[in-house]
């Protein structure tokens, strides 16, 4: 197992937009739900809106569904801490071989995010969760939470729904 793709969102986004990547979660179209066990270690007192970002994806008209998991049975692990002045506010890595994701980690950096507005935090959170779903950055000009350095969009947008439904048809 090795790291294939790194994504970041932050004031100094250091990650180039990848226009193509091969990782995708195993998915059954018959079920129509991309059910990912989510071990959520993000502090609910520091990030009370993180649950809203999860709910936003879970209630979107896509297959996305983050469900409760624990440390012994999880596919997406989200955690926050002060990672320092790294240049990124959020960072996601998806592990696995090409064509088959196995697990993903979402990191929220207190160093930047604690001082962000509610909506900027919602953008970073929904954006990183989008990467955990294996979504790529949206090209500039789209209304999308997957824009890398534009925090205008803080909730799942039509472009994001279209990308999810193209990747995980229901
Ligand atoms: Zn990103």
Provide an overview of this structure.
The structure is a single chain. With 170 residues, the protein is α/β, with parallel strands linked by helices. The chain contains four helices and six strands. It has helices spanning 50-58, 110-113, 118-132, 158-167, and strands at 3-9, 34-41, 64-68, 76-81, 90-97, 100-109. Strands 1-5-6-4-2-3 form a six-stranded mixed β-sheet. β2 (34-41), α1 and β3 form a beta-alpha-beta unit. α1 (50-58) crosses α3. The longest helix has 15 residues, at 118-132. The protein is globular, with a radius of gyration of 15 Å. The two termini are 29 Å apart. The model is unreliable at 1-7 and 10-20 (pLDDT under 50). The chain binds zinc ion. Zinc ion (ZN) is lined by residues 7-9, 127, 131, 137, 148.
């Amino acid at each position: 197992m090795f790291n294939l793709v790194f994504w970041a969102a932050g004031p100094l986004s250091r990650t180039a937009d990848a226009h193509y990547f091969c990782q995708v979660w195993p998915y059954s179209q018959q079920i129509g739900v991309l059910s990912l066990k989510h071990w959520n270690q993000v502090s609910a007192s520091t990030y009370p809106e993180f649950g809203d970002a999860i709910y936003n994806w879970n209630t979107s008209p896509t297959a996305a569904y983050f469900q409760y998991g624990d440390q012994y049975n999880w596919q997406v692990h989200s955690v926050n801490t002060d990672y320092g002045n790294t240049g990124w506010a959020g960072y996601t890595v998806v592990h696995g071989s090409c064509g088959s994701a196995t697990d993903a980690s979402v990191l929220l950096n207190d160093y930047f995010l604690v001082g962000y507005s509610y909506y900027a935090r919602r953008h970073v959170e929904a954006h990183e969760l989008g990467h955990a779903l294996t979504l790529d950055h949206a090209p500039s000009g789209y209304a999308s939470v997957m824009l890398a350095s534009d925090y205008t969009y803080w909730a799942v947008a039509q472009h994001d729904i279209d990308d999810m439904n193209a990747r995980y048809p229901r």
